[in-house]
């Protein structure tokens, strides 16, 4: 009866029925335990069913279920807006709530375009994006994503954007090595902006790591240079922190690694640590000011029914409290060093099978050698690999030939070792194609 997401209807294993969860573990209907090595699509940053999260959601359900956010407000939405702005270092002025990463992105794109429209700048309509990026599955979010199996069939519905190669330091698109790099991968983009700035609304990037596109890492210096050139040419810097936000890269938000101030950021996933759906777009004061008008045509007309859902806000507030009370960024540091150790060991055990090992914060990655390149989401070994790990009680979902671990930040060392052991055993089955 359920049409499951990302599921090839005639060629997929039946879904595994999960009935309960605790910490980094999920349990199926037979009581078998699985370590959630990907935090259930990168959300369960404190582990599953954290008692403080559960209590906060229960308490909110007893107090206020829901009220529309147009013409009304409520304490959890107000308090969360303040806490989020503080967590983001007071770089932003307004919080726009929504329900998931795609809608947070759509809102960011629409505010960006209208910011210029409200100033009479009609020509600005182009978004600059990157080839390996992913921003969600709605039409606007697909338009600004890189070409992939996710959006190819919908090409005729998507609005045009200007794509540039993704900055990816382990596989530099312009052939540089770290010590000679001066963010040369952005030269072409800068040349484009210098000639087309009157048409460009903004540059959109997943900061530090492009996730779905293959866990492509870049240096904070890329963010600094992007900020500098976007400012110079009068275009906005829009960051998609849906994956990288809330400690995933070792910072509250990835943009803080470069000490820059983006114009807007989009947040979801770790925002509620997986307890309930909620998303937010954080907006700088200079952007917001262009909407402060009595003219209805200058208002931002966008609002989902469940926008600012009190339970979601209460969950997000509880998660931010846990960050402080349990020193979650400290956990990420420890996890980062364990992952560096684990991946280095795997790399040395399988020098002919694993390459481009890289770790940042709570993201650890290794790529399989593929004789004939078979990257992409629908790679056949990715599915086999997933199955082999599941048999060993570990949940991982490689992106083509890219194997990654994105566990809860407070995963135990023993569980992490089990994940590495499952990868080790699955790799034994892998034969690099000729
Ligand atoms: C960077 C990024 N942006 C946006 C999205 C879309 O988020 P959602 O699936 O909540 O719509 C994702 C989802 O994986 C993502 O990784």
Automatic annotation (TrEMBL):
Coiled coil: none annotated. Its main location: cytoplasm. Substrate binds at residues 41, 134, 269, 303, 397. It comes from the Bacteria. Pyridoxal 5'-phosphate binds at residues 101-102, 240, 304-305. Pathway: Cofactor biosynthesis; biotin biosynthesis; 7,8-diaminononanoate from 8-amino-7-oxononanoate (SAM route): step 1/1. GO terms for cellular component: cytoplasm. One of its GO terms (biological process) is biotin biosynthetic process. Its cofactor is pyridoxal 5'-phosphate. Its EC number is 2.6.1.62. Transmembrane segments: none annotated. The record marks 6 as: Participates in the substrate recognition with KAPA and in a stacking interaction with the adenine ring of SAM. It catalyses: (8S)-8-amino-7-oxononanoate + S-adenosyl-L-methionine = S-adenosyl-4-methylsulfanyl-2-oxobutanoate + (7R,8S)-7,8-diammoniononanoate. The modification N6-(pyridoxal phosphate)lysine is found at residue 269. It is found in: Cytoplasm. One of its GO terms (molecular function) is pyridoxal phosphate binding. Keywords: Aminotransferase, Biotin biosynthesis, Cytoplasm, Pyridoxal phosphate, S-adenosyl-L-methionine, Transferase. Catalyzes the transfer of the alpha-amino group from S-adenosyl-L-methionine (SAM) to 7-keto-8-aminopelargonic acid (KAPA) to form 7,8-diaminopelargonic acid (DAPA). It is the only aminotransferase known to utilize SAM as an amino donor. Belongs to the class-III pyridoxal-phosphate-dependent aminotransferase family. BioA subfamily. Homodimer. NCBIfam families: bioA. This is Adenosylmethionine-8-amino-7-oxononanoate aminotransferase. It comes from Leptospira semungkisensis. The gene is bioA.
